[in-house]
Design brief:
mainly beta; eight-stranded antiparallel sheet; two-stranded antiparallel ribbon; 1 helix; 40% strand; globular
Length: 146
């Protein structure tokens, strides 16, 4: 017999957050973030839509509990510190495991939008920007599918 559902409180509409330009200390190029979950509830995952202009990208960063990206438009790339580089296209979902340093962004000739999902309770640590030479090398020779 199934357990009785436990009442956790009423459903709520989460306030819409304003679109914000991604901070230049964490992104190269133009990118915009639309927070979806914001501070919905303690312990809830964070979800945002991030829109990248051609060539825009994040700095190197790591999510304590991992991150999942779902590409909603365009073509992008994600690379881990071990050199694995994956081209992402509309409809693709890429999961970066907990503790893996990575960056992601749009290819030089395409806009790219993705949903970014991070598990609740995980800190994000940011590091240096991805330089133009490093970016161009990753774009030239992805190790994932092409």
């Amino acid at each position: 017999m199934p357990a009785e559902p436990r009442a956790a409180g009423p459903m709520v509409i989460v306030p819409t957050l304003a679109t914000v330009k991604a901070p230049s200390e964490r992104f190269t190029g133009d990118a915009w973030v639309d927070g979806i979950t914001g501070e919905a509830a303690p312990g809830s995952a964070t979800l945002a839509t991030v829109r990248f202009s051609p060539g825009a990208r994040t700095a190197w960063h790591v999510h304590e509990n991992g991150q999942t990206l779902h590409v909603s438009g365009g073509v992008g790339i994600v690379q881990s510190k071990d050199g694995q580089t994956v081209v992402m296209r509309t409809g693709d979902t890429v999961m970066t495991p907990p503790g893996v340093w990575h960056w992601h962004g749009a290819l030089p000739d395409s806009f790219m939008s993705h949903l970014a999902l991070s598990v609740a309770g995980g800190e994000v640590e940011w590091d240096e920007q991805v330089g133009d030479d490093e970016y161009e090398e990753a774009v030239k020779s992805p190790t994932g599918r092409d």
